[in-house]
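Problem: given the chain below (294 residues), write out its structure.
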Amino acid sequence: MKRNLAYDLFITDMDDTLLNQNSEVTNQTIEGVKKYIAAGGRFTVASGRNLHSIAIYPELFKLINGPMVLLNGSLIYDPKEKKVLFERFLPKEAKEVLALIQRNFPQLGILVFPKEGPVLKISHHKMAEIIVKREGHSGNIVSLDQIPLPWYKFVLCGSEGSLKKANAMLLKELPDCPAYNTVPGYSEVVAQGISKGFGISFMADKLGLELAKTAAMGDGLNDIEMIQTVGLGLAIGNAQTKLKEKAKLVCPWTNEEAGVFHICNLLSQGMAYDQIKNHFKLVMKNKFEMTKQI
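Solution.
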């Protein structure tokens, strides 16, 4: 049943937001998305993933009815039209800079996301293996010279100390390309001006949608621009503290508690900001009361 929705576009991050800790889309989440779409909403994702690693969730993929913001905003893709709406690449000198990083920080894992072909690994690290396995990429190591230009982004994986030093070098050598420390142990580098917030603004303009009537939810630091761009910026319950501090509201449910399902349910009822805020307070009060009884 179509409703007069307060937020007619809902955008969610994938990992640790829409997906549970096993990187699964639950049936409950799928049902929530279906309910929101049936009420007249547009649903899509904004992710650091590429198109391949979204399409490995076919039941979710076929439901998405708005352009996807991928690779932290480097690619905007319409899955219904099977059309690239926007893409921006790292400058070609990024390849030389990455070679410099590899020589100076051999302990870091490095993944490259080129335009053509799969995501490629040029050095080993246990944290790089997590991305490779989770997102369905090849685990083979290749040399930097084997990876064709252009690139959407690259990812560094390792200790916080090593990443801090590597990011300082990146700032000097690629000053216009932001490095996002999305979660501890990962640093993602994209082209100038690129962020999920930029991607959402572009997409909303393309669709003729109002950002004030858009809701978005995430968990990591690369979601800050996204939740500050939209009318209702949400942090999932398990989000990093810095993101929670920037959010309009913090969801009382985590990704393990199907936070996306619950938000879709509220949005599909046409709830506005004040109603959602009051509902969150009630949920948190009930959770507190239940905790006291244990």
